[in-house]
Amino acid sequence: MPRTAEIIAVGSELLTGGVTNTNAAFLSRLLTAAGVEVLYHTAVDDDAARLEKAVTIAKGRAELLVFTGGLGPTYDDMTKTAVCAALDTPLVLHPEVVEDMRRYFDRVFRREMPECDMQQAYLPEGCTVFRNPVGTAPGCVFTAGKTTAALLPGVPHECSYMAEHCLLPWLEQVRGQTVRSHTLHIFGLTEPQVQELLDDLLRREADMTLAPYAKPGEVMLQLSARGADERACEARMAPVLAEVRARLGAYLYGADVSGLEETVLTLCRERGLTLAAAESCTGGLIAKRLTDIPGASQVFLGGVVSYTNHVKQQVLHVPENLLARCGAVSAEVARAMAKSAKKMIVLATSDKVGANAVASSFPLASVHTVITDKDLTRTGRSRRGRPGKPGGHRVRGAFRAGGRDRAASDPGRRSGAHPDAVCPPRF
User: Which bin fits 110, alpha (ψ -120 to 50), beta or left (φ > 0)?
Assistant: First the structure.
């Protein structure tokens, strides 16, 4: 069973900037969850000699080489030829692959398979074929000496399908164990803070891993375990998952969810709440991310983008003296925006009973967000990264987080204002 891997992406378009290599990120997550450590990412153009050299280097530093791209029928699709030459393995015709391809062309394109596509049916001798029901190019995995090579299509949806439905089961079969994982989502903490809180849990035995990785605006944890079957895996992960929840508390907002926006909408829907937004420097981003989720209209009613102080005053009725005293980027102004947005949306949607409102504003190093369902007197704040105690009447949440300024020209910006630590939202 290979325990280390290198991902080698083939295609000149990856090096010219024409295409982003999303396959590498997906495969890294899948292999890591399966207990295979990814040591290197390599990208090679459509040149057989350079690819052979890359294979020669890679086989000396990783046990599993995963190739993406270059499996098609055109002249520049030479991945199989170059890889087999470097690993001294012949290519042979696989009749079952020919039949698969002919059926695919008949079903999808309603025509006979072109003769040039026949080269896709030539695969390494002795390989395990990965059949491709979502495309024409098959994949495969084979072993030559101490090196195992997996060949996958470069088209992202074909690559991800084959990796999940072919490569991962093959790895589990070779290992004789099942691998299961959960993805945990954290908002309001940086990756170093997460590592500090979970240091001992991150240093676990090889058959169960807990690995953090940062994304824009949040930190994610990949919890994976190996066992005889799915039930055994879940049993091994249960105490670790419970400990993570206990240590992170409100900072952990979901497990195996698509993101924060889906979680907010789901919780609002479950509790019969509606949502409106008043935004400044986010420029409509909150509304955009919410409405990207199917069914958002059941919860999200609308919003106002008040980018300038003038619009804050004229549309959201934020007092001019409040803007002058506190600045556009402040918890006080965010609170006033939220209160006004709530009133406006409720009046505009008389068939709705009540509405929550979200207001946000971003200085250079912080974000102030207020979530309310009734009038507020003050926002909750915290120090040293610990959850604060919200004040006022039924404050649903008040939080801030580090981040880059999206619009440095926003009037009233005060760099470095409100230097409190992060406080998570309380939905």
Answer: left
> For the chain, how many structural domains are there in total?
3
Same domain, 305 and 350: yes
**Per-residue pLDDT in tens (0 to 9) along the chain, 427 residues:** 788 999 999 999 999 988 889 999 999 988 987 878 899 999 999 999 999 999 999 999 999 999 999 988 877 789 999 999 999 999 998 888 888 778 877 777 777 877 777 788 889 999 999 988 887 788 999 999 999 999 999 999 899 989 989 998 899 888 777 778 888 999 989 889 999 999 988 886 666 788 887 777 788 888 888 888 888 889 989 999 999 999 999 999 988 887 888 888 988 889 988 888 899 988 999 999 899 888 888 889 888 999 999 999 999 999 999 999 999 989 899 999 988 888 887 766 655 445 566 665 544 344 455 555 554 333 333 333 333 333 322 223 333 333 332 332 333 333 333 323 333 333 3
91 in the same domain as 189:
no
Is 87 part of any domain? yes
The reply to whether 202 and 307 lie within a common domain is no
Could you tell me if 214 and 154 lie in one domain? no
Q: Are 304 and 314 in contact (CB under 8 A)?
A: no
Q: What is the CA radius of gyration of the chain?
A: 27
* 226 plus 171 within the same structural domain: no
The reply to whether 169 and 293 lie within a common domain is no
Q: How many CB atoms lie within 10 A of CB 169?
A: 12
Alpha-carbon gap, residue 64 to 68, rounded angstroms: 13
Strand pairing class (356-361; 368-372)? antiparallel
Domain that holds residue 46: 4-175
249 Rama class: left (phi>0) / alpha (psi -120 to 50) / beta: left
Contact 323, 308 (CB under 8 A): no
Shared domain for 249 and 268, answered yes or no, is no
Could you tell me if 42 and 56 lie in one domain? yes
Q: Is residue 404 part of a domain?
A: no
* Among the listed residues 180, 327, 195, the one whose alpha carbon sits nearest the alpha carbon of residue 248: 195
Quote the CA–CA distance of 158 and 189 in Å, as a whole number.
Answer: 35
